[in-house]
Amino acid sequence: MYPALRKHFENLVQLTDAEFEYISSFFQVKQFKKHSIILQPGDIVHYEYFVLKGLIKTFMIDNSGKEHIWQFAMEEWWVSDYYAFQTGGTSSFTVQCLEDVELLCISFADRDKLCLEIHSFERFCRLKITAGFFSQQKRIMALLQNDAQSRYQQLLEQYPSLFQRVPKALIAGYLGVSRETLSRLRIE
């Protein structure tokens, strides 16, 4: 059951078959069509999602109507509005499908229960949360310190398959530049 999820867990922790079977029983499968909205601002965030198939973007619209892309999430990535998920609050972001997607979702209460019951699962969550924090910190530092060309090159090196799946306008939104600026960048 859910071999991609098992592989994902076992990149960081070892689980017995019984542990994985128990953990996986807390996940629900959800499918969404391309362009579907999974979360929008003001929604209560009930779930954290693991992407089995497809591609998602998390974004916000500022007061001037400009879209700012916070995250892309593809296969074997996690996505949610984590502040709202953790606090039981409402989403600040829109989470939208860029392709047809298949997700595994787990509630905060179920994730918390599993963390209390299975040390390996708690360790996995701690390591993933820490890695996510480091990734966001690295991204913010790049936005503050690097020019658009460097950010583009870094994204291309880190996630080359993303460029085959995402329109350039969305890449520009993620990098914090206009579509015109992105088209002027030199690709090395």
The largest beta-sheet arranges its strands as 1-8-3-6
CATH architecture of the largest domain: Sandwich
Structural class label: alpha+beta
Alpha-carbon distance between the termini? 42 Å
Largest sheet: 4 strands, antiparallel
Order of helices and strands: HHEEEEEEHEEHHHHHH
Q: Tally the helices.
A: 9
In total, the number of strands is 8
Report the average pLDDT across residues.
92
Shape: globular
The H-level CATH homologous superfamily of the largest domain, spelled out, is Jelly Rolls
Radius of gyration: 17 Å
CATH class of the largest domain: Mainly Beta
* CATH topology-level name of the largest domain: Jelly Rolls
Helix content: 40-55%
Please indicate the percent range of residues in DSSP E strands (runs of 2 or more).
Answer: 15-25%
- Low-confidence segments, given as residue ranges, are none
Can you offer a commentary on this structure?
The chain contains nine helices and eight strands. The protein has 188 residues and is of the alpha+beta class. It has two domains: 3-132, Jelly Rolls (Sandwich); 146-188. It has a four-stranded antiparallel beta sheet. 22% of the residues are buried. The model has no long low-confidence stretch (mean pLDDT 92).
Describe the structure concisely for a colleague.
This protein has 188 residues and is an alpha+beta fold. The chain has nine helices and eight strands.
